[in-house]
Amino acid sequence: MSVDEVQKNIKNNFSIPPHKTSNIKKVIGVVSGKGGVGKSLITSYLAVLMNRKGYKTAVLDADITGPSIPKVFGVHEKAMANSDGIIPKLSKNRTKIMSLNLLLDSEDTPVIWRGPVIASTVKQFWSDVLWEDVDYMFVDMPPGTGDVPLTVFQSLPVDGVIIVTSPQELVSMIVSKAVNMANTMNVPILGIVENYSYITCGNCHEKISVFGESHTDEIAEKFGLKVLGKIPIDPSIASACDKEAIEELQGDWLELAEEVLCNLQ
Ligand SMILES: Nc1ncnc2c1ncn2[C@@H]1O[C@H](COP(=O)(O)OP(=O)(O)OP(=O)(O)O)[C@@H](O)[C@H]1O
To answer: What GO MF terms are annotated (predicted)?
Structure first.
């Protein structure tokens, strides 16, 4: 068997079943080549948008050392377990959430764990959480192409990934790494979302590209991928996150992403 074939078979060999009561229809990984691009925001907002369409949504926070999902949904109470498994917390609009922050005694406790422990926590979030019926589960991956993204790709039946990026030049190399990882793991890439694309001038409504000209369209074309949306730097986004009210955020920046996701069902 060639190295390529071995790599493409890795995923199947390590896959683990979800809890026996779980019926999860589609698993979407949200990845970024580097940190700080707003990946958690986009993961949460995609769940909100699909929830608004009437789908049963869930977010698995695989960003174990930097978990931010519960906070943007305003969920703080600890998750409980019964003899069958861990019960996910529900947001106001009934998106199911599991994150390490929901299991720690205090949200401020830093997670100083080695890679294998982090990876096995993510697997448990898949296999030991009582997700029950879910149409779309969004997995907020830690940034980069390290241990945890690898574990998620190997262990979970990921139906597609969405790559989040910012507009700068350096990003082309970083996105290439994320694309190559998904290709190596044989996971379909649904497309790219660009965050921090522009600001809109409050007076003349001109769009200003704060980070210079965007390279996202070029990169997407290079890899034959769709650009699923461009999100501006917008105070309403920061405010929705700060107020822990992502479910109240309004913005039609991700319509194409919604369409692509709907077509998966
Ligand atoms: N387009 C945007 N406009 C305004 N604020 C934003 C935008 N995107 C993200 N933010 C703000 O930045 C904060 C951090 O975003 P988020 O947690 O999604 O990403 P991150 O910290 O960059 O980490 P990562 O992308 O690695 O998960 C959010 O709480 C939000 O307040």
So the answer is: 4 iron, 4 sulfur cluster binding; ATP binding; ATP hydrolysis activity; ATP-dependent FeS chaperone activity; metal ion binding
Which pLDDT score, from 0 to 100, does residue 9 have? 52
Q: Determine which residue's CA is closest to atom 19 belonging to ligand 1.
A: 38
User: Of ligand 1's atoms, which has the minimum distance to the CA of residue 143?
Assistant: 26
* In the chain, where the domains are located: 3-12+22-259
User: Which tokens sit at 30?
Assistant: 């949200």
Does an H or E element contain 55, and which?
A: none
Q: Which residues form the pocket of ligand 1, taking CB atoms under 6 Å from any ligand atom?
A: 32, 35-41, 63, 68, 143, 195-196, 231, 233-234, 237-238, 241
Nearest atom of ligand 1 to the alpha carbon of 34: 26
Q: Given the structure tokens 């498994």, which residue do they identify?
A: 85
Instruction: Give the angle subtended at the CA of 112 by the CAs of 72 and 129, to the nearest 5°.
Output: 55
Which residue has the CA at smallest separation from atom 17 of ligand 1? 40
Does the pTM surpass 0.90? The reply is yes
Which DSSP symbol is given to 25?
E
Tokens of residue 231, six digits: 């999100």
Q: Which of 41, 64, 165 for a ligand 1 pocket mutation test, highest count of atoms within 8 Å of Cβ?
A: 41
The CATH number fitting domain 3-12+22-259, selected from 3.40.50.300, 3.50.50.60, 3.90.45.10, 3.90.1150.150: 3.40.50.300
pLDDT for 215 equals 87
Q: In terms of Cα–Cα distance, which of 146, 182, 170 is closest to 11?
A: 182
Work out the percent of the chain whose per-residue pLDDT is above 90: 66
13: pLDDT confidence band, cut at 50, 70 and 90?
A: low
Write down the ipTM of this complex: 0.95
Those residues whose C-beta lies under 8 Å from the C-beta of residue 97, and which sit 6 or more positions away, are 58, 59, 61, 69, 70, 73, 75, 88, 89, 90, 91
